[in-house]
Design a protein that fits this description.
Elements lengths: L6 E3 L3 E4 L2 H12 L4 H15 L9 E7 L4 E6 L27 H14 L7 H14 L1 E2 L2 H9 L1 H6 L1 H7 L12 E2 L2 H13 L3 H4 L1 H13 L5 H6 L3 E3 L2 E4 L3 E5 L6 H11 L12 H21 L3 H4 L9 H9 L17 E8 L5 E9 L7 E2 L4 E2 L30 E5 L4 E5 L5 H15 L4 H6 L3 E3 L10 E4 L4 H9 L4 E4 L10 E5 L5 E5 L6 E4 L2 H7 L1
Parallel strand pairs: 17-18
Antiparallel strand pairs: 1-20, 2-10, 2-21, 3-4, 3-11, 4-7, 5-6, 8-9, 9-14, 10-11, 12-13, 14-15, 15-19, 16-17, 19-20
Helix pairs in contact: 1-2, 2-3, 2-4, 4-8, 12-13, 12-15, 12-16, 13-18
Length: 536
C-alpha cells in the first residue's frame, strides 16, 4: 500500500487540518518563531478558513513540551451568573451559547510563555496577519465545510446567522472553492492584533461582545467575559510501555483516555495480530468502561473534588483490565458526546513542541454570530447535564465536562509523539488506535493514520448504539467481533466520520515528522534545509 508523503525535517514541522493553516504556521517557523508562535498563527488562520470547526468564540487546551517536561494550559469558558432568557439550555441557538469562550485567554498565556520562556520576538500583528488577510479578502470554502454543511443543511436553514457563513448570494449552500469573506471577523482580528488578544475580554471587543450577548439573551454579560481565565495545570501522566503518556486533567475526558490505555498496558498488544479481532476487542472494551465512568462523574473538579491522579494508580489499572472479558463484549447503551474540533501541532528547530486542540463543541457551535464582531460562539453549555443532581449540572461560574484531550508521549529512548483528533466520543477511541499503532506496533505515521478506526456508540450517527468499524478492517475481523457480541456496522474506508487526526514524531536524532489525516485535506509541512540555512 502506498501512502501520502510525511513531512520530514531536521528543523521545524507543523500539521493542521487545512493546508492554508499549515502554510501560515510554517511561515512563522521560517521567520524564527517558536512552536507556540506557529500554532497560534495556524489556529488564527483556521478561524478564518475552517469556521465550521473552530473560532475565536471557542475553547482550547494545550500541551507544551521541550522534550523532557510537559506543561498544560486550559483555556476554558465558564457558565455565566445566570441562565439564558427562558431559564434553560438548548443544544443549539442562543440558549446553548451560555458559557464564555476561553480560547483567547489561552492564546494570551501561550504567547507570554513563548516570549518569556522560549525567547520569541513574534508580536500579535505577526501572528494574526495571515488570518486577517484571509478573512478580509476571502478564502476558498474547504471540502470539510461543504461536507458538514450537507450533514447539517436543516440546522443551517433554521439558524439565520449561519447563512452568512454557509449560503451564497442566491441562497444556496456554498460549494467547494466558493469564496467566503468575513469582513467583521477581519475587523475583530485587526483590533486584537493592535491591542492584544485580551481585548477580547477586557477591551473594545469585549464591549462589542457584551452588546451582542444582550441581543441574544444567552445570559452572559461583560463581567462574565472579564472573569474568564486560562490556567496552567499539571498534565495527567501514566507509564505506558517504555515511556510516559500525558493528557489533560478534568474537566477534560483525557483522564479516561489514559485509564483505558493504562489497562491495556497490562495486555501484550504487540504480541497480537495487528489490527486483528483481538486487538479491536481489547481496545473497544477498555474504552467502553471508561466512557461509562466519564458519563457518571466527569465535571469541573472544583465542584466535586474529582481527583484524576488517584484514578491512574497501578491497582486501578489492574482492576480495569480484569473487567475485560477476552471472549465477550459488554452490553452498550450510553449517551454519546458528538462534538467537533481542530487538532494541530508544531515542533520547532530548538526541540520544543506545542500541541493544541480548539473547539466550538459541535460543528458550527451555537450557530450564533455575536453582535457585529463576526465571532461564531461555541455551544459548550450543551455539555452540562440536564439533571440538577448530576455532578456535571449547570452552576454559575462552572465549566462543563469537556471532550477535548490532546496527547503527548515521551519515550525513555528520547522519541517523542504528539497526537490528537476531532470527534467527541471518537477522540479517545481514535487516540487509542494511534497510541497502540505508534508505540506498541512501531508503525510509521502514515500507517498509523491509515489504520482502520472504530467508533463505539452514536456520536454523529443518529440513534444507533453499535460498533462502527472502517471497512478495511475486513470481514474476518467483523465476523469474530460479532461472535463476541459486538454489533458491527461498516463505515467506508477513510470515513470523515472517523475524525480528523494528526501526529508529530520527534526522533532522538532530531529528525521530525508530521502528518495529518488522510480522511481530510490537512497536511504536514516541514522547514527546508535552504530556509534553515538562510535563517541561520
Amino acid at each position: 500500500m502506498t501512502y501520502p508523503q510525511t513531512a520530514i525535517s531536521t528543523g521545524g514541522v507543523i500539521c493542521t487540518p487545512d493546508a492554508r493553516a499549515s502554510e501560515s504556521g510554517l511561515a512563522i517557523l521560517d521567520a524564527g518563531g517558536s512552536a507556540i508562535d506557529a500554532a497560534l498563527a495556524a489556529s488564527a488562520t483556521l478561524c478564518a478558513v475552517y469556521p465550521h470547526m473552530t473560532g475565536l468564540g471557542g475553547d482550547a487546551m494545550w500541551l507544551l513540551s521541550d522534550g523532557h517536561r510537559v506543561d498544560a494550559i486550559l483555556g476554558l469558558g465558564q457558565a455565566g451568573q445566570r441562565l439564558p432568557d427562558g431559564g434553560g439550555i438548548s443544544e443549539r441557538g442562543p440558549a446553548s451559547a451560555a458559557t464564555t469562550a476561553g480560547a483567547l485567554r489561552s492564546w494570551s498565556m501561550a504567547h507570554d510563555w513563548s516570549r518569556h520562556r522560549w525567547h520569541s520576538r513574534m508580536t500579535w500583528p505577526d501572528l494574526l496577519e495571515s488570518a486577517i488577510g484571509l478573512a478580509e479578502q476571502g478564502c476558498g470554502v474547504s471540502a470539510s465545510q461543504v461536507f458538514w454543511q450537507q450533514q447539517r443543511a436543516e440546522l443551517i436553514a433554521d439558524l439565520p446567522d449561519l447563512h452568512k457563513l454557509c449560503y451564497n448570494r442566491a441562497g444556496h449552500l456554498l460549494h467547494e472553492g466558493d469564496r467566503l469573506r468575513q469582513p467583521q471577523l477581519a475587523a475583530t482580528l485587526r483590533r486584537l492584533a493592535a491591542a492584544g488578544v485580551d481585548d477580547f475580554y477586557d477591551g473594545d471587543i469585549g464591549d462589542a461582545l457584551a452588546e451582542g450577548f444582550a441581543a441574544l439573551g444567552n445570559g452572559l454579560n461583560r463581567t462574565d467575559l472579564r472573569r474568564t481565565v486560562a490556567q496552567w495545570v499539571e498534565p495527567l501522566r501514566i507509564r505506558y510501555r517504555q515511556g510516559s503518556l500525558f493528557n489533560i486533567p478534568p474537566p477534560s475526558q483525557g483522564l479516561y483516555t489514559l485509564r483505558a490505555l493504562h489497562a491495556l498496558d497490562r495486555i501484550d498488544l504487540a504480541g497480537l495480530p495487528n489490527l486483528g479481532a483481538d486487538y479491536y476487542h481489547y481496545l473497544v472494551e477498555a474504552i467502553k468502561q471508561q466512557l461509562v465512568n466519564r458519563n457518571r462523574e466527569l465535571c469541573d473538579p472544583r465542584w466535586s473534588g474529582l481527583d484524576g491522579p488517584s484514578q491512574l494508580s497501578t491497582a486501578q489499572a489492574d482492576a480495569d483490565v480484569a473487567r475485560i472479558d477476552p471472549g465477550r463484549a459488554v452490553h452498550w447503551r450510553e449517551p454519546a458526546q458528538p462534538a467537533d474540533t481542530v487538532w494541530l501541532a508544531a515542533s520547532d528547530r530548538n526541540g520544543r513542541t506545542a500541541c493544541l486542540i480548539q473547539s466550538l463543541f459541535h460543528d458550527f457551535g451555537s450557530g450564533c454570530l455575536v453582535g457585529d464582531t463576526g465571532v461564531l460562539w461555541l455551544n459548550r453549555a450543551a455539555g452540562f447535564h440536564p439533571d440538577p443532581k448530576h455532578p456535571n449540572c449547570w452552576a454559575s461560574g462552572k465549566r462543563p465536562a469537556h471532550t477535548l484531550n490532546p496527547s503527548c508521549y515521551l519515550a525513555d529512548d528520547g522519541e517523542q509523539l504528539y497526537f490528537g483528533t476531532q470527534g467527541g466520543d471518537g477522540q479517545p477511541q481514535t487516540q487509542m488506535v494511534l497510541a497502540t499503532q505508534l508505540i506498541d506496533h512501531r508503525q510509521s505515521l502514515e500507517a498509523a493514520l491509515h489504520a482502520p478506526r472504530f467508533l463505539q456508540g452514536r456520536s454523529f450517527f443518529g440513534s444507533t448504539e453499535n460498533l462502527k468499524l472502517e471497512e478495511p478492517a475486513g470481514h474476518d475481523v467483523a465476523r469474530s467481533l460479532r461472535a463476541r457480541g459486538h454489533d458491527v456496522e461498516w463505515l467506508p474506508e477513510l470515513s470523515p466520520f472517523s475524525g480528523q487526526a494528526g501526529a508529530i514524531r520527534v526522533r532522538p536524532n532530531g529528525v521530525r515528522e508530521a502528518m495529518h489525516d488522510p480522511r481530510g485535506q490537512g497536511i504536514g509541512l516541514g522547514q527546508s534545509t535552504e530556509t534553515m540555512e538562510e535563517k541561520a
